[in-house]
Amino acid sequence: MAIVEYGMPISLAEAKKVAERAEAEARANGWAMVFAVMDSTGHLVVLHKMDHAQFGSVAIAQGKALTALNFKRPTKAIEDAVAGGGMGLRMLAVEGVLPLEGGVLLMRQGRIIGSLGVSGAASNQDGIVAAAAAAEIKD
Questions:
Q1: What are the pLDDT digits (tens) for 8-28?
Q2: What is the CATH number of domain 5-134?
Q3: Whole-model pTM?
Q4: Can you give the pLDDT at residue 19?
Q5: What's the distance, CA 121 to chain centroid?
Q6: Is 42 left (phi over 0), alpha (psi -120 to 50) or beta?
Q7: Whose CA is closest to 113, among 80, 138, 77, 79?
Q8: How far apart are CA 99 and CA 4, in angstroms?
Q9: Has residue 1 got a pLDDT over 80?
Q10: Nearest to 129 by CA among 137, 121, 112
Q11: Which of 49, 62, 75, 106 is the most buried (most CB within 10 A)?
Q12: Contact 57, 125 (CB under 8 A)
């Protein structure tokens, strides 16, 4: 397995584009959501809450973004490990891990430039929006 490295942090301008793309996808599906974009150092760059999004989604979106960034993988992989039971359940003992789909890495030229956390609908719907928004990053 190749080592994935952290790269230069995402810029504010690019983070805004990711959040705007996420909002467009959410709006097209009729979902009120929250989007958190973090840079490759784990710092929040953009927090974007749509009108009528549930308040709890603010913390959840940030947690998903940080989980993806810290573990260098989409949160769906952690959700699947927990759902599989057995040794995957150990992830529940790790402080700060949100095993819920909707956290993705933002990549450029094979390096992590940031992450995106999406919350507000069902986890699989959060994942749909996250994937669409992550595609905004161009190599």
A1: 999 999 999 999 999 999 999
A2: 3.30.450.150
A3: 0.96
A4: 98
A5: 14
A6: left
A7: 138
A8: 20
A9: no
A10: 121
A11: 75
A12: no
Q: What is the DSSP letter of 42?
A: S
pLDDT digits (tens, 9 = 90+) for 111-139: 999 999 999 999 999 999 999 999 999 88
**CA atoms within 13 A of residue 110's CA, in its CB half-sphere:** 4
Whats the size of the chain, residue-wise? Answer: 139
Alpha helices in 1-139 (DSSP H): 12-29, 56-71, 75-83, 123-134
| Token pair recorded at residue 129 | 């929006």
Residue corresponding to tokens 């490990």: 81
Nearest C-alpha neighbor of 26 from the set 98, 121, 134: 121
Pairing outcome for strands 44-49 and 34-39? antiparallel
Measured distance CA(92)–CA(99) in Å, rounded? 8
